[in-house]
Amino acid sequence: MASTQSPTQDRENHTQIVPAKKRLQAVLLLFLLIIIVALVGWQLLAARINNTDPTVAGRPLSNGETHLHTIAQGGKPGVLYLGTHFGLFTSTDGGHTWPQARGVLNDLMITTISVNLLRSSSLAVIGLPSTSASGKAGIYFSQDDGHTWDMRQPANLPPGAYPFTVCAGTASANHFYAFYLYAGWYETRDMGLHWGPITSSPLSDMQQPSLLTFAEHPQHLLLGGEKGLFESNDDGQHWDHLTMIDGAVLKLVAVRNMIFCVTDQALYKWQENGVATPTITRLSTPGNHPFDRIAVDTTGTTLYGLIGRDLWYSQDAGDHWVQHFHFDRGDLVTLLVNPQRSAQLYAGFFLPAKVLSSEDGGKTWRVLTA
């Protein structure tokens, strides 16, 4: 049957269809524009999140997304390492200049740095993923001052094992110990090519352990943690519990033949003799409060201790203390004494990342890098 619609009605229908099409096109164009803006915004955000470079040349902590995890001193005068959220930075002049445009291993956060003092070019670090494109969590070794790295770990680690800390041994320049959460302590004497366990349960089950090695007695080890202090004289084959130490061990330091042990209850010191059971002295602390951390100079007579935000100083191996400073923040991650100058200290803070330096035993401080 022929259409009965008049020419006037055809024009009216056409007039209605054309604006509808234009409105649909405008909506589609707006939707496409929104998608493009969202994609560009996401790319810019991702680039910002994954940008691991310092924002200011020569200032390794200037990237607002970075954290400072640790500071370590090298085996040569003036060498200072920063373990950050975006890799490892190195200074050779005591932290005055940092020539790297970006950190080494800059897709990893470096939480622990260990230098083998028998050969200062031998390094081991703990690297953990820090960005969406990060490398694998593990222990990274370098034999050339940190220019090249290899990730190596013990074979047949149990499921869930996680690298926690690494410590240089003293038997050779390739000697290191490493602790894995949920696995225990392992030893390597060839920069991670081969490993062997040195602990078993319950010592392997400690959550925040610290290991102390001795230059004159490579087989002698002290292992501390929340279960107390343990000693081995056969490189971890057997361990004895030193029940004279009360509380959870927070820090172990050896200087020459003097050992200092910080627990959550007290500060102890004794002479290291390698074999015989030592006579352990419990030191008095300011207000009888336990130290959170200590740092000791190379003579063993100058000590610095932190209680909360207060820095305390002793010039007689911990027998007497005077307060030197009060920090305005409580996120200190590292306190170091320069081996060449006992009055020079470094203090590192987590976030905002900052390193302070003192030339007068902690009485005054200046920003070394931020």
Describe the fold and architecture.
- This protein is mainly beta and 370 residues long.
- The protein has a domain of 62 residues.
- Helix content is 12%, strand content 38%.
- The protein is built from 1 helix and 27 strands.
- Strands 4-5-6-7 form a 4-stranded antiparallel β-sheet, with no helix packed on it. It has a 4-stranded antiparallel β-sheet with strand order 8-9-10-11, with no helix packed on it. It has a 4-stranded antiparallel β-sheet with strand order 12-13-14-15, with no helix packed on it.
- Strand 26 and strand 27 form a beta hairpin.
- The radius of gyration is 29 Å and the shape is globular.
- The N and C termini lie far apart (86 Å).
- About 2% of the residues have low confidence.
Q: Helix and strand layout, with pairings?
A:
Elements: H1 7-49, E1 68-73, E2 80-84, E3 87-91, E4 108-115, E5 123-129, E6 138-142, E7 150-151, E8 162-168, E9 176-181, E10 184-188, E11 196-197, E12 210-213, E13 221-225, E14 228-232, E15 240-241, E16 249-255, E17 258-263, E18 267-271, E19 281-283, E20 293-296, E21 303-307, E22 310-314, E23 322-326, E24 332-338, E25 341-349, E26 354-358, E27 366-369
Antiparallel strand pairs: 1-2, 2-3, 4-5, 5-6, 6-7, 8-9, 9-10, 10-11, 12-13, 13-14, 14-15, 16-17, 17-18, 18-19, 20-21, 21-22, 22-23, 24-25, 25-26, 26-27
